[in-house]
Amino acid sequence: MAKTHAAAVSQQAGTPLVVVERETPEPGPNDVLIEVKAVALNPIDFYQRDYGMPPVPIYPAVLGSDVAGYVTKVGSNVTTAPPVGSRVLALASAFYQNGSPDHGAFQKFALAQSEAVTALPDSLSFEQGAVYPLAVMTALTAWTTMGISLTTRFTPADKQAVLIWGAASSVGTYAVQSAKALGFTVYATASPKHHDYIKSLGAHAVFDYKDADVVSKIVSAVRQDGLKLYNAHAVVDGALQHVLDVLKETKGQNPAQVANSPVLPEGHPTLDNTTIKFNYPSFDKEVRDKHIGDCFHGFLAPLLKNGALVPSPHLQVESGGLEGLNGALDKQRAGVSGTKIVVPL
Predict the structure, then answer these.
(1) Which of 63, 223, 299, 309 could cross-link 303 (Cys pair, CB 3.0–4.6 Å)?
(2) Residue 101: cis peptide before it, omega within 30 degrees of 0
């Protein structure tokens, strides 16, 4: 293996990524070194490139988090990751690694903590594999934020429903798929052009979020179906008040829980007997590492293996490799709907 590799680095906020050669790192005790074959983009990537937010502690920085590729080396303490040569997907992010550029996704060889690496079935391409990591972890973290274990498996007799507001987003599609796996009946919102697709992922009913009567329509459907709706995931900006309007009518005397994926602003709306939390993993490293392992090894791995969690949303593959990342990030910044941008390397 070469001593150096190509990487697209951010030299300072507000400037384009530049492709340079970086020294290929040796994995630390809990690390897996991955030869990256595809990366997927998330909104956080262009925010960090353009504004340095969330804060980038080290420059030059390697941004990105979603990768798929081959295991090249493993650290001395790694026992759970697939062996060298395996096809894997991983959360390769500097975000939980104090900004370490060795852990960023936008390079040909990236480190990932072993808890965040899982086998990629032969039935899925590297491009398909790259769309899972951050979106899946965010969707799954919402459940634990609401106090719902990832081992939960409701049956129809439990009559448990959940509301996913913003289901056509990358996180939203996995919120729907994971809700179905947990045994919830899923009510979701999306643009009408995505309704059939969201239903194909497991939603019971999908509503147009721009409909003036959307809240009353969801409430009527839940009542007609005779289900209990106490839990909701507000995936997108501007969703919280609508979600609370629904829960006010459906929760009765029961306590309700909302996971809010956008950062909660000061003075955000509230509802009696309803817990509203920002959807974010624990700041405690030991707790967070266990949670990441629960997401990737406990929940994702078996569902990938049996095909129950499909790559979503639709892939938009952009060419150009590392040199093409700036153009791909510009497209992400301009806005995508019901698609996930992926760049093969």
Answers:
(1) 309
(2) no
Name the stretches of the chain with pLDDT < 70: none
Q: By the 8 A CB rule, do 262 and 234 touch?
A: yes
Token pair in block for residue 146: 């609401």
- Predicted pLDDT of residue 2: 84
DSSP string, 187-207: EEEE-GGGHHHHHHTT-SEEE
Q: Is 16 exposed, middle or buried (0-12, 13-18, 19+ CB in 10 A)?
A: middle
Q: CA neighbours within 13 Å on the CB side: how many for 339?
A: 14
What's CA 134's distance to the chain center, in Å?
3
**Those residues with Cβ within 8 angstroms of residue 110's Cβ, 6 or more apart along the chain or in another chain:** 33, 34, 36, 62, 67, 90, 92, 102, 103, 104
Q: How far apart are CA 239 and CA 234, in angstroms?
A: 6
| Helix-helix angle 285-293:133-145, to 10 degrees | 110
What six digits make up the tokens of 153?
A: 């498996």
Q: Please confirm whether the linkage preceding 313 is cis (ω < 30° from 0).
A: yes
d(CA 254, CA 275): 11
Cis peptide, bond prior to residue 54, ω within 30 of zero? yes
pTM above 0.70, yes or no: yes
**Residue found by looking up tokens 């490293």 in the block:** 285
Sorted by where each starts, the structural domains of the chain and their CATH numbers stand as 4-132+284-344 (3.90.180.10), 139-278 (3.40.50.720)
